[in-house]
Amino acid sequence: MGPSRPIITVFALSITKRSAATGRCFLKKIRLPTQKRLPNVLADEQIRRVLGCIESPIKSWLSLLYACGLRISEGMTLEIGAIDSAELTLRITGKGNKERRVPLPQPILDGLRRMWKTHHNRRWLFPNRAGTRPVTHDVLARTPAHAAGAAAIRRRVTPHMLRHSYATRLLEHGVDLRTIQSLPRRRPGSCSVTRASPPLSSTRI
Q1: Mean of the per-residue pLDDT values for the chain?
Q2: Residue 8: HSE in the Cβ half-sphere, 13 Å Cα cutoff
Q3: Which structural domains are found in the chain, ordered by start?
Q4: Secondary structure letter of residue 150 according to DSSP
Q5: Which is more confident, 75 or 36?
Q6: Is 46:170 a contact under the CB 8 Å cutoff?
Q7: Crossing angle between the packed helical segments 58-68 and 106-116, to the nearest 10 degrees
Q8: CA–CA gap between residue 12 and residue 124 (Å, rounded)
Q9: Residues whose CB falls within 8 Å of the CB of residue 6, separated by 6 or more in sequence, listed in order
């Protein structure tokens, strides 16, 4: 009887794999999971200080992002027809052309009405100077960074931080994490959308 072949033991974290073609075992590299960074957020008081250093209409735009938890692109391309004043909701077209509705606090709606009177654009809520298309991303991105310096906040502040800060406020007010994670995917008519945001319904900026 010839010498026995060595036995290959496979543990829970296996480092071997058998080839379907040759039947031989070979080593397989195991990559460690990448560590995700926590999102950058601002305290509510910090956001109010930043907004206090900004003039309208960009102030209205940033206030809307924070109060409704919108993505930058969603806030940029908002049209007048997206506002439902009677129901106090905002119709948002997000990634993949998917539509959802989010609560629109009355103070934010009042601010948008005042801001609209400064340009009277028939289509865009936040138009460029020519009124032919939405305001550009560069203009919107630079403003909060400059305002943060004026507000004595020694951090790099971006519009996207407002969306993360919005989610943080909901968590602080006891909204379930799964509900918050599902908000961007909610469809029109979902009751959960309306119930998710009462903590911000009295936002006054």
Answers
A1: 75
A2: 10
A3: 44-200 (1.10.443.10)
A4: H
A5: 75
A6: no
A7: 160
A8: 57
A9: none
